[in-house]
User: What shape does this take?
Amino acid sequence: MITTRRTRQLAASAVAAALGVTALAGCGSSDDTSSGSGGTKGSGSKTVTLVSHDSFNVSKDVLKQFTEETGYTVKVLKSGDAGVALNQEILTKGSPRGDVFFGVDNTLLSRALDSGLFTPYEAKGIDRVAADTRLDADQHRVTPIDTGDICVNYDKKYFADKKLAPPRSFDDLAKPAYKDLLVTENAGTSSPGLGFLLGTVATYGEKGYQDYWKKLERNGVKVVDGWEQAYNEEFSGSAGGKKAKADRPLVVSYASSPPVEVLYAKPQPAEAPTGVATGTCFRQIEFAGLLKGAKNEAGGKALLDFLISKKFQEDMPLNMFVNPVVKDAALPELFTEFGATVDSPTTVAPDRIAKNREQWVQSWSSLVVK
Assistant: This one.
């Protein structure tokens, strides 16, 4: 089960990211992101509650537009790591804490669907969403919202100082030149950690991935609970890592993490201090769904429509550092200039993940978790 101690997950840390680095409300807190007039805070027909992992972030003016268009005020209930948040919803199935759940990804999608968490709803504008992200297109139990690529990031200064080329592929990470340099998240407690594990399964196959992890273990890979700890405490290339005097110049993070290091630096550098090993990437897709038993079903449907609107989709990249799924959404210049483009990320079919996830994680744990 993906449960974590960390306070953000995936990206919520840092504006951090849903892919990158920022810290939004804490685990289990119920932050009200209420917008504008026209809605009533708290419970009631004019409030729609979005349950999410800690990484959810949106501009106030965007939520205000939603309120002006629909009359509903959005309340955001952040619940820790994506896996933690999902587990909490499964435990309260039928009596949900909110109306819409955001943040289940393709690595955990089968768990959510098999648990019967969602009421089917075909969101307005779904035809504008990229077809390869619509993994439940026949039943519409979930709606794709964003994509991101889980990849190894590297500290450019470290490799320049050592006159060592940074790794580019999974194979490179197991080479002696990179011994004791990599930190990754626990695949049993972290979405990025699980995504990185799945990337190795996709690359080396059912049997080969275990041999690969044995090589990484012998090469000194360090495993920590979650993204926050790995990126902001152990990785020497991040702003947080520099303050913590971190000594690992390689970390499992996201292709969109480098723009975070530029956006929040003062003054902003001309070049991102971190790079991306694009041959180590796994494609993550995040979804939202109308929770079965939602008290405000109409408001939940309106919110799902809004989450794939151009306004919201274009707001995501510099708030959650993820990629939009609608075809007409434009990316901001900072995101495209400093983020990495991943042309061929690894993927694993959801049904294959559903069948093998627990076995893969258990095997992985026996190899590297001490």
